[in-house]
Amino acid sequence: MTSVVSANRLLEEDETVATDQQLATLYSQLRAAFLSRHFAIGRYFRRNFFSQQNQLNTSLKASDLLAQSGPDQQLTRWNCIRNPSENDNPLLTGSMFLACLAVEDALGHPHAPRILHSAVATLKSLYKSSGNHFDGYPMRWDPTCSDRWLLTGSSPLASDEFLIKNGNYLYCSPSTDPRHWPLRSRDTLVNLIGEQETQRYIKTNGTDLGDERWGYFDRYRRWELSMDELVGLVTTYFIINKLCTSAGTRAEVIRQANNLGDYLAEHGWLLVRPIGGLNARGATGILPALEFPLGRALQSITGNSYAARTDFAGAMKQAGYWNCLSDPLTLWTVAGAVGGPLIAPMLTGVIASLGIFAFIPESVPLAGIALPAAGIPASILSVAVPVASVPMARTYAVYQSRGCFDVKDDSAAQEVAISLFLKENIPLTTRFQGWMFACGFTGGKTGAWSAAFPPYFALTALDDPDTTVRDAYLGWLAERHNHTNLEPSDHPIAEGCFASAVAVLLGAGATEEARLKSLLDQKFTSLTSAFGNDIPVVDGNSVIDEIYPHAIDYQVGLALAWLHAKRRSDAGNPVTTSGFPALPNNILFWPVPTVPANVVQSAQAGQLTLPITAIQDTATPTVFSYGAELFSTENSPQKPDVPAPVFPSVPARMVIDRTITVHQSDGDVNTSIVLNNGDDYEISAAGSIWAGDALHGNNGPDGWNDIQWDSTWPLFGSLDPVNAHSNCLLGRLGGYFFIGSSRPRDRFLYSGPCPLWLRINSKNPGSGNGSFQVRVQVWSSLDQSLRRQLTAHSLAVASVGALALKLGQKWPPPPTLSLRQLELQLSNS
C-alpha cells in the first residue's frame, strides 16, 4: 500500500507550531468525518461501530481525489465499502476513537453521551452466546456491522460472512459442519489427499493458506475475537466507565465488563469457543501475560476479581483438546531434564517471536537476541526456567502436538505452547513484567499488533494505586525510543501521540508533555497540508483506501492531552509546559456529523448505495444545507437487530442420484459431484469392511464404537468428539465430516461450489478388505447446463479461487460480487 504521505514523512515535515485553536479545529473536522463515514452509518445499516478503513469505489488515484472540489470529493468518499478484511481490529482501533468521545463527555460536549450510549449498545449486540459462562463471549463484529452481504440489486439478502443452518446464522462455525475447513498439518494432508488437493488448504511453503481455506477463514472465522480485540474492548470499557456522565451507559458497561471477566476467568484467560475449540487467532500465546493488566482494569470497573479459575489442562478440556495432549504431556514430563537440551533449539523461533525468552535466559543467544545493556531484570531472572527442565519438556509436548488445534494457521497453533509455559511456570505479575520487558526491544516492525498493546492497557492504569502497569509502561516507552527501527510503517506504536499522551497522563512529567506537543504539531502539519483537514487516503489495490492510523493518533493524543490539562487544573496544579494544549473553548460550535446534502440526494436518486432510513430513522430525513444530522436527537438511530437471512428456496428437482463404491483400500474417492449454493443433498450407505485388525471383526458405515484422537487421521475427536469413529464412512467438502449409515437431507448454503469426496476414516487404507456402497442424491434449482459447466470447471481447477481467476475476477471477491453473479458470468464464458 503506497500512501500519499508516508508514515516516515509524517515525522519529517517542516513542523508548524499550531495554536490551541488550530489544533481543536482540525480535531473537530476529523471528528465529524470519522463519526459520519467511519462510525454512524454503513452501506446497508446503521452501525455505531468504528471502521478502520473504507474502500472507495472509484478508479481515481488518491491524488486525483484530493484535487476534486469539496462536494465531488464528498460523493467519492461516501461511495465506499467497509470491507472486513481491511477492518480487522475495529475494537482495538475503535477504543482510541471511543476514548476521544469519553473525554469529550468529560469536557461537556452535549452530543458525546448519546454517541457513547449508541456505541455501548452496539457492543452489547456482539454478545450472541448465553449460559455456561459464555454470556461474556463477544465477537469482533456481526452481520449488520459489516458491508459484506449477498444482494438483490442493492438490497441485502444474507450476510456473506456467517454460515446459515436451519434458517439462522451460526455465530460460532462448528468443526463438525461439512462446510468447515479446519487447520490440518500439511504433512498429514499430503499423506491423506496428495499434493494437489493439499494446495487448496495450505501452500507449498507450509505457511500461507490455500485459496479455498483462506476464503473460508476470511468469511466464516475472521470475526472471532482475538487478544487484540480483547485489549481494545477492555480499554473501551475502562475509559467510558471512568469518564461518561450517563449513569445508564456506565451501568451497561459494568454489566458487559462483568460478563466478559467471568468468561475469561472461567476459561483460564484463554479464548475458548462456546461449541468447543479455540478462537482462530490470538486465543492463547501471551494472553496469560495480559491477565494482570486487563484483570485489574476489569476489577476497577466492576469491583470483582477475575482471577483464572482453571489451569491450562482445564481450559484444554473445555476446548476439547485435552485427549490429544494428555499422553504427549505425560511422555515428555517423564523425559524432563533428559530431553531438555534438545528441546530449546526446536523452540527458539517461537520463543523469540512471542517474547518469552526473558524467562529462559539460556535461549537468548540461541535466538540471536541482543539484550539491553542492563540485561534481564533481577525480578524476572528470579523465576527463570532452565532449558533442561520438565517445564521446557512440557512446553515442547504441546508444541509438537499442535496438529490438533483448529485455529487459523500453524503460527496460531504454536502459540498454545506458550500459554502452557506461562500459566504453569511464571507468576501472574511477573508474566506481565517479563513480556513488557521483552516488548521494549523486540517486535512491531512487521506490524504485529501485540507490539502495539502497551499504550492501551497502560491507559487503564490511570489512578490505579498499584503502580505495576504504570511503571512497566514508562520503562517500555523509554526503551522503545532506543529502537525506532522497530516502528511499523503503517501505524505508530511508541513514537505516536497516543503512546506519549498515555505517558503524560501517568505522570511522565514536563519533558513528555513537551514531546507530546511536538508530536501533535508534526501530525497537524502533515494532516492539514496533504489531506485538507480530512481523513488520509492512500492508493490501495485498484481502489483508494481511507485510513485511520495517523488521524486517530492525532485525535486521541490531543483528547488525552485535554484530559490531562483538565485533571491538573481541577487538582489546582495546572500544566505549565510551554504551548501544551489548553482546553477547547468552542466545543459547542464544532461541526455536526452529517451525511452531506448532495450525498443524500445522490442516494435518493439511486446513484449511491446508502441506507437513507438509518440516518434519522425515517425514509425522509431532514436535510439542511450542510447535510442530514446523524446524532440530532437523544433517540438517534441504533444499530438494528440482525435481520433473518433470505436464501434460496428449497429445490424440488432431483438432479443426481448416484451410487459410489468406497473400498477399504481406497483413499479419498472422487464422486464427480459438486455441490453449489442452494443445493440439497442426502447420503446413505450400506455394506461392510474389515480394517485388518485381529481384535475387530467387520464393521458397517458407522465404524467402530470408539473415538479416534490421533490428529493424523482423517477425522479425529477434537474436530468431532461424538462421531470420529475409526473406519466409519466420511465425506469431504471442506474438511472431513461423518456420514455413517445415513446423513439426512441437508442444505448446502456456501460461498462457492465444493467437490464431494468420500473416504473411510483410516490413515492406513489397504490394511483389510470390503467396501461400502454409498448413495448420493442432490436436489438443485440451478440450470443444469450451468451446473455441468460449474462441475467441469470446479473439478478441473479444484479451487474456487482459480475459478474466479479464470473469469478474470479478484479473489476473495468484493462484497458486491455474489455467487450468483459469478455463476452467470461462468455460464456466458
Largest sheet: 5 strands, antiparallel
Average pLDDT rating? 90
Q: Give the amount of beta strand, in percent.
A: 5-15%
Instruction: Kindly state the percentage of residues in helix.
Output: 40-55%
Strand order of the largest sheet: 1-8-9-2-3
Low-confidence stretches: 1-13, 792-801, 803-829
Structural class: alpha+beta
**Count of individual beta strands:** 19
What is the first-to-last residue Cα distance?
33 Å
**Overall geometry:** globular
Structural features:
single chain, 829 residues, alpha+beta, five-stranded antiparallel beta sheet, four-stranded antiparallel beta sheet, globular, disordered N terminus, disordered C terminus
Describe the SSE topology:
Layout: E1 2-3, H1 20-40, E2 53-56, H2 62-67, H3 70-78, E3 80-81, H4 90-107, H5 112-125, E4 149-152, E5 155-159, E6 164-165, E7 168-169, H6 186-198, H7 211-220, H8 227-243, H9 247-266, H10 287-302, H11 312-319, H12 322-354, H13 363-367, H14 378-381, H15 390-400, H16 410-425, H17 428-439, H18 454-459, H19 468-480, H20 497-505, H21 510-531, E8 537-539, E9 544-547, H22 549-570, E10 594-595, H23 597-604, H24 613-616, E11 628-629, E12 654-663, E13 669-675, E14 679-690, E15 729-732, E16 736-738, E17 742-748, E18 754-760, E19 769-779, H25 784-797, H26 800-806, H27 819-827
Describe the structure.
This protein is of the alpha+beta class and 829 residues long. The longest helix has 33 residues, at 322-354. Helices cover 42% and strands 11% of the residues. It is globular.
